[in-house]
Specification:
about 280 residues; paralog of FGE (formylglycine-generating enzyme); 5 helices; 4-stranded mixed sheet
């Protein structure tokens, strides 16, 4: 009887010990609870400038183009003139860059060089504000902001008049974009595909990109340096995402949503102008 009691005690102790042998915690699919999640972390050692964040920009020349799409209601083709050059991010803002400045990474698809997503328009504007306040940028008089949708489409077209900057053949989109047919339903590192003629990557696919403007129908007449209406209910985003079909990735295509809305389909890229030249208030 004593021997039986000893065996029972031994087995119970072994079971308790076994329950406490925990392996490394694994992230739960579809959540931000893995090791790359830093939603409550404060920025550590803010960088001095956008260059320190690894951000690259391309100069976009002033010029005119036909903006819009005759097949879409409210997107009447019209002549747009941009009188000032500007600089646009070569890439969409990455998760690493966002986390370095903001102290968190809200993204659904983790990856330091993947575009940051689950970003609202308000989040993107706050990132631009903080970037403009970095010592090196403030000293240089640089102002970072979202591009207007006219600037975005102008840079996306890169001097072309076709559906895409590479022409009208949708079968070539996979060379330039991560979209529904080739993305495996996830984002991918920025700059993995071909660039457009002006040196910009991922203008199609990967993530939709917020623009500055409130949404409204296009005018019928020519306009100069348009910035959109002074107020509205929805902000514009462009370019398509990892889940978009080819038609939604066209240069002229646009969508809209409330500025507080977040999803794993939406990110942004940054526009740079000198403070004295910016057509948009930095407020």
């Amino acid at each position: 009887m004593k021997r039986l009691r000893s065996v029972v005690v031994f087995l119970a102790a072994a079971a308790i010990a076994g329950c406490d042998q925990r392996g490394p915690t694994q992230p739960v699919a579809g959540t931000n609870q893995g090791p790359e999640s830093t939603s409550n972390r404060e920025p550590i050692g803010l960088p001095e400038s956008a260059t320190a964040l690894g951000m690259e920009f391309k100069s976009i020349p002033a010029g005119s183009f036909t903006m819009g799409d005759e097949t879409v209601f409210g997107a009447t083709p019209h002549e747009v003139t941009l009188t000032k050059s500007f600089k646009l991010g070569v890439h969409e803002v990455t998760q690493h860059q966002y986390e370095q400045l903001m102290g968190n990474n809200p993204s659904h698809f983790p990856g330091a060089n993947n575009p940051v997503e689950k970003i609202s328009w308000d989040d993107a504007v706050e990132f631009c504000r903080k970037l403009s306040e970095l010592p090196g940028e403030k000293a240089a008089g640089n102002v970072y902001r979202l591009p207007t949708q006219a600037e975005w489409e102008y840079a996306c077209r890169a001097g072309t008049k076709t559906k895409y900057s590479f022409g009208d053949d949708e079968s070539e989109l996979g060379d330039y974009a991560w979209f529904r047919d080739n993305s495996s339903r996830v984002t991918h590192p920025v700059g993995s595909k071909k660039r457009n003629p002006w040196g910009l990557y991922d203008m199609y696919g990967n993530v939709w990109e917020w623009c500055q403007d409130w949404d409204t129908s296009y005018p019928f007449e020519s306009v100069t340096d348009p910035t959109g209406p002074a107020s509205g209910s929805s902000r514009v985003f462009r370019g398509g995402s990892w889940s978009s079909p080819t038609g939604l990735c066209r240069s002229a295509y646009r969508r809209r949503y409330e500025p507080v809305f977040r999803s794993a389909h939406r990110g942004f890229r940054v526009c740079l102008t000198l403070s004295s030249e910016s057509p948009i208030s930095s407020e």
